[in-house]
Amino acid sequence: MLEVTKNRVIFIEVYTLPDGAQRMGVDLMTLRPVSSWHMDYFGQDNDESADYTLNAVGRGKTRIDMSFRNRWKGEMSLSTEEKRKIENEAWDGYIRTLEGAYRARKKRRN
Questions:
Q1: Domain extents for the chain?
Q2: How many Cβ atoms are within 10 Å of 15's Cβ, its own excluded?
Q3: pLDDT category, 88, cuts 50, 70, 90?
Q4: Cα separations in angstroms, 67 against 36, 52, 74, 106
């Protein structure tokens, strides 16, 4: 993670393809607390954008609506499952990082 502010998060994503080759990309997340955020990703193999919106759906319940647009560059020899695995690993990392940053900020305030 390169930067975290109230309204923006910038990540560098490095991932390994099944053949061992490493790839890199940059994620720019625009935060619109408390209900939405937008992500633009620029990578070696693909560019992606996403929008996320949180919606109340009942007492104490929230639904997240997500829409993604992904443009793969050139010929990719990865299967859909391999692409999903890379995406899931990236998002698991984002979640861990953001939750850790949130806990650290909260701890500093107390």
A1: 3-109
A2: 18
A3: confident
A4: 12, 7, 23, 30
Pairing of strands 46-58, 36-43: antiparallel
Tokens of 94: 């984002």
Q: Is the pLDDT of residue 76 over 70?
A: no
The four Cα atoms 25, 70, 9, 15 give a dihedral, to 10 degrees, of -30
* Nearest partner of 11 among 36, 39, 34, 37, judged by Cα: 39
pLDDT for 82 beyond 70: yes
Omega prior to 57 cis, within 30 of 0: no
Whether 86 shows a pLDDT value over 90: the answer reads: no
- Per the document, the length of the chain is 110
